[in-house]
Amino acid sequence: RGNSFSGPTEAQVRLAKNLCERVPSLETVRFTNSGTEGTMMAIRGARAFTGKYKIAKFEGGYHGSHEYVSVSVRTPSDALGADATVPVPEHPAQPPSVSEDVLTMPFNDLEVCERILRENASELACVIMEAVSSSFGYLPADVDFLRGIREITEELGIVLIFDEVQSFRVSAGGAQEMMGVIPDMTTFGKIIGGGMPVGAWGGRRDIMALFDPTEGAPLAHAGTFNANPMTMVAGEVVMNHLTPEVYDRMNALGETLRAKLRAVFDELEVPAQVTGIASLFGIHFTDEEIVDYRSTLTGDSDMTKALFTGLLNEGILIQTGGAGALNTLTTDAEVDALVDGVRRVVARVR
Predict the structure, then answer these.
(1) What CATH number is attached to the domain comprising 306?
(2) Is there a catalytic annotation at residue 190?
(3) Which of 15, 31, 226, 301 makes a 20 to 30 Å CA pair with 165?
(4) Is the confidence at residue 99, as pLDDT, over 80?
């Protein structure tokens, strides 16, 4: 008994099997302690598999806090480059090599993305992206855009990584199952640990074999608390409870919530966009359609702050950026309480 061992446990095997059966891209999977570690290891695997070192990500995309994804994440409007293809360091004193080795692309713009990918294919190991962008108020990518990225990366031999740390909650197989676009590798966190610290990455067997110590793998993966039994058991319980019926109920409530929020803003004549998919939602105080990172910056940040604070005073907690998620315990009563709270707050501060 204990919560840290130097070898695999039965709970780890069961949870791994559960995930591989659910997620279309997963042939094998390895566990970490955070989503940040999951994306870091997926990128490392893509580099080793392709023999190339550059990576591509989308402007505004968040994939954890390690160095090579900390580029053009929360860039303020006055620090943006001329367009989304100009990488901007996220932290002071980042090594110049980080920005040199990370390409940035505009979300939902296939023409520009294709040009960048083709021009850099000989040096590009992977593209990492969220099919549902958490930084944009859980904006789902246009499906044709996703399909285009999949086709181009497949043609050019570039590994496609889906970061499903947050979007894995939209269906049993995540956003890739819901949208019908299958990446080479997938990263996970949060949901698969039942509230315990957790992360994971997995995908094609030939890529993941690079981490297999039984095959003399070139890439090591170690961690004292990787796949610790408490997390594995908690994750297994949660996965077993997340049945198709549970997803259907949560997602239907999400549709209801987004429709009611739009009606409130129309009623109060407040310019706003409500984004989201399934049980996820985001609120943007702007009359401009949200399609990428730069369009999110057109929103009224003072209104967003006022909404967060006002709802907190009403006993309702959402993200500071105006987004949130429903859960398995949410009912129509909680949806209506949130909608009524938004109405009261916005009516006071508009």
Answers:
(1) 3.90.1150.10
(2) yes
(3) 301
(4) yes
- Residue 4 in domain: no
Cβ burial of 335 (10 Å; 0-12, 13-18, 19+) is middle
Boundary of a domain, candidates 241, 276, 291: 241
- The pLDDT > 70 percentage for the chain reads 100
Is 68 part of any domain?
yes
Task: Please indicate whether residue 138 is annotated as part of the active site.
Answer: no
- Among 190, 247, 292, 293, the active-site one is 190
2 inside domain: no
Segment 294-311 shows an average pLDDT of: 97
pLDDT at 4: 78
> How many whole angstroms separate alpha carbon 16 and alpha carbon 24?
13
Exactly one of 62, 68, 138, 293 is catalytic; name it: 62
The length of the chain in residues reads 350
For the chain, the domain total comes to: 2
Instruction: Write the CB contacts of 56 (distance below 8 Å, at least 6 apart in sequence).
Output: 102, 103, 104, 105, 116, 117, 120, 124, 126, 127, 128, 158
